[in-house]
Amino acid sequence: MTQGHRQRVVAWAAAVVAVLSFVALAPVARAGASSLVKASAAGSESVTSGKWAATASTTAFTFTTNTDQTSTVTNTGTIALSAISYKVTVSNPTTGSPTFTLWVCTVAWAANKCSGGAGTQVGTTFAKNSTTTVTSATVPALSGSVYLQFEPAAVTSSTSVTLATLITSPTQLRAAVKTNQ
């Protein structure tokens, strides 16, 4: 290697070290500068691990009068939901033909109201001696909750209602965010 070639290699290496040092030490965001960071990805992406789960605080109800009852559904998983299903089973009481409607609210029920309104009805009417699965797009956020209320009608004798939460993967999981540009 000649003396001139050696000097060019050393100068080039010094320039590379200077640029890399500047990049490594440069602040990410300066006062008044935008803190927007863009990212890109290549290829197919998917969730490789996670847990989807939503649990109800109350799953068994007994109605002896036409008094509303509530349950809180909390997302205890690590994956956001886009929908959730509820399986509602109504017993066959000894007398009468009670019916029930299910309502969901994003805030806790207060005096049978959802932020001054009725909430959003889930499904239609549940009749005695039936098992029905209904789906709602009102879902609890991660580590968050939604609030359910059963509203009975025509209850004349003890009637049991059970509630189960169901999540169908992948149709009820939130769609992946597209990162490719």
Portion of residues within helices: 10-25%
For the largest beta-sheet, the strand count, sense and barrel status come to:
5 strands, antiparallel
Can you tell me the CATH architecture of the domain at 54-166? Sandwich
Rounded mean pLDDT score? 79
What amount of the residues lies in strands? Answer: 25-35%
CATH topology of the domain at 54-166: Jelly Rolls
- How does the overall form come out from the CA principal axes? elongated
Q: Structural class of the helices, strands and pairings?
A: mainly beta
Element-by-element helix/strand order:
HEEEEEEEEE
What key attributes describe this structure?
single chain; 181 residues; Jelly Rolls; elongated
Task: Explain what this protein looks like in three dimensions.
The protein is mainly beta. It has a domain at 54-166: Jelly Rolls, CATH 2.60.120. The protein has one helix at residues 3-25, and strands at 54-56, 60-63, 69-75, 84-90, 99-105, 120-127, 130-136, 145-153, 159-166. Strands 1-3-8-5-6 form a five-stranded antiparallel sheet, with no helix packed on it. The longest helix is centred in the first third of the chain and has 23 residues, at 3-25. The model is unreliable at 12-42 (pLDDT under 50).
What is the secondary structure topology, with strand pairs?
Layout: H1 3-25, E1 54-56, E2 60-63, E3 69-75, E4 84-90, E5 99-105, E6 120-127, E7 130-136, E8 145-153, E9 159-166
Antiparallel strand pairs: 1-3, 2-9, 3-8, 4-7, 4-9, 5-6, 5-8
Q: What is shown here, in short?
A:
13% of the residues lie in helices and 33% in strands. It is mainly beta. It has a domain of 113 residues: Jelly Rolls, CATH 2.60.120.
